[in-house]
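Exercise 7.
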Amino acid sequence: MRNAARGHDLVALRRLNTTVVLRALHRRSPQTLAGLAVGTGLSRPTVEAAVEELTERGLVAAATGDAGERTPGRPARRFRFRAEAGYVLGADIGLHKMVLLLADLGGTVVAAHHAEVDPDLGGGPRLDLLRRAVETFLDEHAPRRAAVLARCVGVPGMVGGDGVVTTVVVPEWSGADIGRLLSEDGPERTLVENDVNLALLAERWQGAATLAGDVVCVLTGHRVSCALTIGGRLHRGRRGGAGELGMLPLLGLSTAQRALAWNGARHTGESEVAALARAADAGDARALAAVADFADRLTPGIAALALAVDPELIVLTGGATPVGTHLLPLLQERLRPVTLHVPRIALSSLGERGVAIGAVRMALDRVEEDLLADKAP
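Solution. The predicted structure, written as tokens, is:
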């Protein structure tokens, strides 16, 4: 019995050492065996055994290419984390559009798909549309289906900790476990998260909020929704409803998008907001008045969050960002008399991919938890 317990302990220790080496290479690649031994505190033979196992599993490979300044003698072997060993899918299924991104384990997007969606499409057909699009997208771009290690979908509306959607945006989805429904055709469970929460994760990862901890993200466009991080961590609330000020009619966020209606001239294929932004850039008085109206409607909700959270940064993202250069100074002006401090306000540069990029980040977090967590009991 004692030998069996000792054998179990040795297996667990070997598993932990392998994870430590993988984590080091995931954090910085390429590295030599000697460098890994110093960085991890493990012995050279232990590192070699771990690298050999990880190479067999396809997670590590020998690095090629010039290592920089050459030194006399045989060059040391260098190893790297194989970002191409797996992929994640990030999806955004909104009222008017669908965005799909396929990224490798290093977060590099290798394929993308965008499609317009009928805003009147019901919950069941909308889910079927997403399911078919994902299957086709992965068939066309994923090297093999088993290589897709995690999927995450951003949806409008509140999402509880159990993944169940509570929404008035797509009423048929209220109470539905969208992740389970989307996973019926695949082995892995699909993560589901509120779209503005994912937009904020994207800003924290690659956008305007990479250096900020207390952040409010305002998703603007056909609807207005908010999310926040406190101390760098996404604050979802008890039931996933933190920041959902659009639910309160008195604040006016639920109708703010009406200000962006534009019946002026539009170029072929140009969106309504893009046409409005072009007219505002040209100094059109009606367009500038529309942006000012939008700022008036946004101010009460943003002020409420600013007073409640006292963030260091507010990020505007979503469909209304084309008018952002006109909108930002107006918001700053309107917030000044109704808040104690006007936070810095930034405009997202991630475009229509913002929510899907956040979905990629959440899917990567899940994979990294599985791959890089301590495996020893």
